[in-house]
Amino acid sequence: MEIGQKVRVRRLRDRVSQEIIKKLGKTGTIRDFKVVDGYGVGMLVQFEDNTGTWFFEDELELFN
What we know:
Layout: E1 6-9, H1 18-21, E2 27-36, E3 40-47, E4 52-56, E5 60-62
Antiparallel strand pairs: 1-2, 1-5, 2-3, 3-4
């Protein structure tokens, strides 16, 4: 996955807030990467409503 690609949130790995749970199934654009200790790389996804949050790669799928 690369910055600028469209992705869909396909699952959530951890317990998260209701606000993030609402993003399940939504599409957004990868805006940045973050190295996460012990878990690999996280991706900042920005959604159409201009909100954004970090996800792990296995929580996302490419959206065409």
